[in-house]
Amino acid sequence: MAAVVSPRAAASIAGPHRGSFGFRSLFPISTIGLVLFILVPPLLLLSLSVSERFDLRGGVLPVGFNTDAYVQWSDDIIKAAGASMAVALPTVLLALLLGTPVAYALARLQFNGKAMVIEFVNLPMIFPPIVLGFGLFQLFRSGALPAMPPLLTLIAAHTVVSTPFMIRPLMLAIQRVDPALEEASLSLGASRLTGFVRVVLPMLVPALLTGIALTFARSISDFEITFLLAGGDFSTLPVTIYQAFETGSSRLGAAVAMAGNVFAISVIVVLELVVKKAKWW
């Protein structure tokens, strides 16, 4: 016999679904708002870099469209991009080599003070960049360490502040891998390292991609630490943008900013494709 539902009960069931439209609409509205908030500043910079006049009161569309800024300052843009890559790529490699064993240890080992160690590892993600910059400035420039060329100094400093961005996603991913899989490989005669490379590492590819992208983005976008440690002697993309706006060359700053955005996105896409296609495991 079919159950009979009273009109009041039916209304109480259907009511929340009808009333939930406003709540459901919040998600696409907030998503569109966030996307616009992210896209508008780069679009304004793009308009500035290809416009002879940039005035928001007259609209955001270019007035007198031309690409002279990119042609005129192409050498400065290429030089800044090369300097950024010279720092960012070694930083990513060092963060990968240092961060992977640390992430594995924090995910698998149990020891006293582990929670505190994790918090210490995460500190560079929490501290304001200017605070880290002043601290590293005192460390590298006070004579506490041997003097190094600006490039090596920046690579070391960027590695310190960027490695946590590699450790965090790897640690969370390793925690989701069943330890029994590693134990099974050990029981079949594989060494601990072989078991990690052949069993665990393939499962960490998404986390590796995330760590590589975050580490690269952190390094290539850094201004405070780079400027404090190298000044104008080593002009990466952020430093070049700052110097351009400081000297009143807004179009150069906008052009370098746009070129840097395109450059960084392209490098991250290429790195993701390389890691996905590689069969090193």
CATH class of the largest domain: Mainly Alpha
- What oligomeric state best describes the polypeptide chains here? single chain
Task: For the record, give the distance between the C-alpha atoms at the N and C termini, rounded to a whole number.
Answer: 61 Å
Number of DSSP E strands = 0
Alpha plus pi helix count: 13
The general outline is globular
The CATH topology assignment of the largest domain is MetI-like fold
Q: In percent, how helical is the residue content?
A: over 70%
Structural category is mainly alpha
State the domain count.
2
Supply the CATH superfamily name of the largest domain: MetI-like
Unreliable stretches (pLDDT < 50, length at least 5) are: none
Biggest β-sheet description: none
Series of secondary-structure elements, N-terminal to C-terminal: HHHHHHHHHHHHH
Query: What's the alpha carbon Rg, rounded to whole Å?
Result: 25 Å
**What is the CATH architecture annotation of the largest domain?**
Orthogonal Bundle
- The proportion of residues in beta strands is under 5%
State mean pLDDT (0 to 100 scale).
Answer: 79
Main location: membrane
Subcellular location: Cell inner membrane; Cell membrane
Pfam family, one: BPD_transp_1
Family: Belongs to the binding-protein-dependent transport system permease family.
